[in-house]
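Q: Hi! First time doing this. I have a protein sequence and I read that you can turn it into a structure. Is that right? Here it is:
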Amino acid sequence: MTPLQPLQAPRSARRPAPALPHGRLRRPGRPAPALPHGRLRRPGRPALVALAAGITLAVAACSSVSSYAATVDGTRIGTGTLEGELRDLASNDKYLKLVESQIQAPVRTNGVFDASFTSTVLSREIIYDLVAKDLAKRKIVVSPADLAAARTAASDRIGGDDVFNAFPKVYQDTLVRRSAEVSLLSFALMNQGAPDVAAKAFYDANQDAFAQVCVSHILVATEDDANKVKARLDGGEDFATVAKDVSTDTGSKTKGGELGCFAKQNQLVPEFSAAMFSQPVGAAGAPVKTQFGYHVILVKSRDVPPYDKVATEARDQAATAAQDKLAAWAEEAITKANVTVNPKYGRFEKNGAQSRVVPPEAPTTKAGAGGGSQTPPTSTPG
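A: Yes, that's right. Below is the predicted 3D structure, encoded as structure tokens:
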């Protein structure tokens, strides 16, 4: 993971899908909870949590060389700033458990963050410092409305409000401000006017991306059973009645097969999602095969909500459209920046998109004297 990977405009805020009691349409597995700075992550590359194996929650106290963690064009990122963020991460047990469940490895070993993780957190602090400096040069100020728009997205990327609210309030504010600043920089790079203007323009040009579908289904085990269901419906039988009679989906059959309404970005299995956005409204479609069986789907409505109902999502998606420009900005900004890192935390390596803080090399232990090597501890959240 490199600091340039997370520098991406935020992904679109996703409306929560209706809960399916048995989860029979959802893709297996739970989305990886992003680390709080992960909202800048470039898609398709390992998440920051992948570096968290072996993380610890406390390290050695500061020495006389530890008054700064890094400097960026003359601005100091203090050791206290870095260690404060590590303390905030360490304080959220709900979040750490989400990380552990995702990577299937403990992130807490005797209460110490290792140097690799610490260097990654510092890399992000350097990037966010550059973002803030760029906004200042452009005389762009984060407004209360910008913070309000960014709050939902920041929470969503952490794992939802339950996890987000478990962070200290001051750190919540930091996450929201970072999210807002990246969004504002994205809009500035797009050069399409104020964020609300750009968001409305994006909505007008991409209305299909905001469509919502309300749908019912009947789930059966075999294709032959599905064809029989389709024949009954084509013969005039009521969809809800047939669903209550034969559907194997115990979570929806008592409601006549009703599942609720979904946006295009959802967590349903892809075959089902594709069918409900493509088949005609008001008529039962041809059977659709998924890993759960065969579905006969009834699309009850497919509409685009008015802009005021999806304004936050439109703003987020509009910013996402600037991801290539944002990535190019990041590479140029880092190339031009004068960055130094306290040797305690490693060194800053400029290498285009791979620029990052490289942690100090771990000292080795001679064979027979305890064995192996250890990553040196680097900060003290306590």
